[in-house]
Write a structure and sequence with these properties.
Structural class: mainly alpha
Largest sheet: 2 strands, antiparallel
Strand order of the largest sheet: 1-2
Strand content: under 5%
Oligomer: single chain
Number of domains: 2
Order of helices and strands: HHHHHHEEHHH
Length: 281
């Protein structure tokens, strides 16, 4: 037992997060995602919306650490408008609502005066786009007639990359991918995630979406690049704001935004791949 504890502690130190709680939380989230998406899609949408609003709260609270003033209530209302519009109206609803939301946020920030306007308005616009707007693409995937298959494919892409990048990084990681942004991430982890995600995506596209495995592999590669960018963006935010995690809500993962970052950026890429296939296949 002591040897197992020592191994677990060594993995935790090398990977930068607690392994066992991370696995438990990850499995619980998967169960919630698949059960709600399979039987009650609107409940899935509602839970994703709640998760996005929690992530938004974490982000606005983090802004306060650098004296960046944003109004969570205004942002939450605008984000809710964006997500509901995406679920009800699809891409046109998402497009129109984000324009209305951005204009509204800029106007409300302007009412506070000109001091710090650029900083605060930029932060408000960023918070509406991320996590709000990009999360809208999860809703676009889920509302489709093939919503379960699309969301399952998204989960496979994100899950394969997170899992195998983690394992490859722990076992073989020696060369930092972006040492000034995220010292724990390595090229070895990136390549491991890339290979296994390409395989997982190829299988998902073939069995779930009825497309050629090579198309799925290409989509998987694009998804890994997007997910890595999402991870690095969130790491850059935390470094700029001088915080370790966005929150402590999810044991082994940090805050809600720490858990959503990869999926938020991967969802638009997967949606684009699917839309291109619909038009040109």
């Amino acid at each position: 037992m002591s040897d197992l504890h020592s191994i677990n502690e060594a993995i935790n130190k090398r990977a930068g997060r607690r392994l066992i709680p991370s696995i438990i939380v990850g499995l619980a989230l998967l169960a919630i995602i698949f059960s709600t998406m399979a039987f009650v899609p609107p409940l899935f949408a509602a839970l994703v919306g709640i998760a996005v609003l929690i992530a938004l709260r974490e982000l606005t609270d983090a802004f306060k650490a650098r004296d960046i003033q944003t109004n969570y209530l205004h942002l939450a209302l605008a984000t809710s408008l964006v997500l509901v519009s995406a679920w009800v109206g699809g891409l046109p609803g998402l497009s129109v609502s984000i324009v209305i939301g951005l204009i509204g946020m800029l106007f409300l920030t302007l009412l506070k005066g000109t001091e710090g306007f650029v900083k605060n308005a930029t932060a408000s616009a960023f918070a509406l786009l991320y996590p709000g707007f990009v999360a809208g693409f999860i809703f676009l995937l889920a509302r489709s007639g093939e919503g379960f298959s699309y969301i399952a494919t998204l989960v496979i892409l994100v899950g394969c990359n997170d899992t195998f990048a983690y394992i490859s990084g722990v076992l073989f990681g020696k060369h930092p991918l972006a040492p000034k942004i995220s010292p724990k991430k390595t090229w070895e982890g990136f390549v491991g995630g890339l290979i296994f995600t390409a395989v997982g995506s190829a299988l998902a596209f073939y069995h779930l979406l009825d497309h050629h495995p090579l198309i799925g592999a290409a989509a998987g590669v694009a998804g890994v690049v997007a997910a890595t960018v999402g991870d690095l963006v969130e790491s850059a935010i935390k470094r700029d704001l001088s915080i370790k995690d966005m929150g402590t809500l999810l044991p082994g993962h940090g805050g809600m935004l720490d858990r959503l970052d990869s999926a938020l950026i991967t969802a638009p890429v997967l949606w684009c791949c699917i839309e291109l296939l619909k038009r040109f296949s």
